[in-house]
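Project standup — Tuesday

K.O.: blocked on the structure for the chain from last sprint. Re-posting the sequence here as requested.
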Amino acid sequence: MREMAKGSNVGLAALSDDTGSVVVSLRWSSAAGDGDADVSVLLLDGNGKVRSDADFFFYNNPAAADGSVQLLGKTPTDSGSEDRISLDLTAVSQDVDRIVVAASQYGGSCFGELDDLRVTLADGSGEALLGFSITDAGVESAFIFGELYRRGEEWKFRAIGQGYETGLAGLATDFGIDIDDGSEDDAVAATAVEQVPKADEGQLLAVLPSAAIPAQAVGEAQPVGVEPTTKRARGPRTAKKKVTLPKVARKSLAENDSWKPARLFPAPSLKSDKERELRATSVLLSVMAEVPELGRRLTAAFGAPAGRMQTFTEVTLPHGDTPKRPDGVIRVERAGKLWTALVETKTNGNPLKQDQVQNYMDIAARRGYEAVITLSNDVALEGSPLVDVRTDGRRKHKVALWHLSWAEVAHQAQMLIRHEGVGNAAHAWLLQELLHYLLHENSGCHGFQNMGPAWVPVRNGIDTETLCQGDLRAVEVVESWERLIRQVCLRLGGELGQKALPVQRAKRGTDPQSRRAVLADRLCDEGRLAAELRIDGTPGVLGITADLRTARLRTSIEIQAPEGSYPLTSAKRLLRLLAEAPADLHVETLVEGGSGPRGTLERLRPEPADMLPKDGARMTGFRLSLFKGMGATRGSAESGFIRSVDESVDRFYASVVAQLTPLERRSGSRSQPTEPSAVG
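H.V.: unblocked you, prediction finished:
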């Protein structure tokens, strides 16, 4: 990989023969684990300006109609996150001269608070071609990382590293996007933005003069089991009107509940693993071909171009004396060129087989195919491949190996039909049928459901205090826990329509295996598994702790007390927000240097003054926690534990987190005011 210096440039053709479609990745890290930013892409003409508002892509406008640009979303890294952008350079209009890749922060944050700012570019096979690190970030709240530009028929990349103290608004103005704060429509849009819990600078696009925000363009994020109280403002719709399904199903015409609606993809009759694999592969690939939004969403990250997609199942391909039959084949045609991927599917928790995947990698290399995609209940982890394959370095043609989990497929279908929308009602119905099939108990596509063979021995070792540091089984359990947490994020994010990502707290430069080894040793000593989730729109980080010694799960969140407010006022305000929360919710007051009073919501409701520190310590916030048994007595220990984690997160979010809004701030400079009375 070529390392770029600020201001340098390089032609993509000099680095790879496969640069028709590339993936640009922006990453950053934070020692505290709480830094984040949002990417944006601008298409510029020869004058260095956007042709229209449709040339500005951000998280509310994530894809171009022609497939040339698609924001693929965030994935967690060891100490931060990575945002990826798929660029199909063969689909970019000829009147586009430059493609600018930028990122912005919100809420008064600046890029100097983040570490390891870096952009990389990979070719169609997934091989990283170039990288550029920004080391001089300071007070800037927006940054241009780099740009791709034309030189004749060639695309080149330039490392820029230019910051803006004026944030996304200043960057947008430089490239021809006018923001008029004086119009009536803008005032309405700005009011909508203020109602969003986290006022993201990406939402400045909501006040563009050409953007009238239709009802269906308002965010439909909904807490699990809880009706929303506010709607999230969204930016302008630059493509045709999108269709989402209503949240409340139409009244059934059935005489009674025993009547079951006809399904396009029936699942109850499936009995064998072979049947499940055949049906699941055919169902998914057929919907991908018929619903371009889903097909593009699932393949863009793998280097597939935007084009006409066809899918096939049970294709026989020659391989020595014994022909092989991959479960599926995906082919995409654009400008007379074909992109081909072989698909290997597993369901019902069955593991991928190394020899099968190796055979398909060899076949793909010989036939000039671009990728092999594995699909199973497992969730892939950085630094821990699900299968190890050998590659022949003597072959000029490179084949990329990618993995999808069924949970990721369900997440993308949920996002499209519930939150982002698809092209027409027929596509929405097809996605709904796909989602119903994936979630059916007989489909075998439920996602990660088994903590692995090391789970029970590790739990027994913790019970008997015989588990020692360095035990490799503890590392396996830590990896399974990480897979489970990533699946929880996918499921919760699909329900809410919000970004949900695990927080990885590790020293910079720590490789994934070393980090997991440290966590495994901690598991041996403390008997606990812990994780943190960051969900857009929530006032803090959601924590999950599984104490294997006591067989209890704890879900918690810490929220800050506003500066300059009376402690008793903050306590009363919190109790009002939690009026519908469970009575067994634990509330703990946080003070400088440690913890203060604590108690259940049932006890504290009539006496808010009991939440105040007794020794005059400065109150900094509150920790809210719910506890639940791990439920390993029903079903298998693995599935019982996973089910308990899902139920705990759902209950905590719906009954506690969804009710929280930022505590009201009082004006003034009092650092710790004293109230005249502590009577509740």
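K.O.: great, moving the ticket to review. DSSP finds 13 helices and 24 strands in the chain. Confidence is low (pLDDT under 50) at residues 180-241, 633-637, 664-680.
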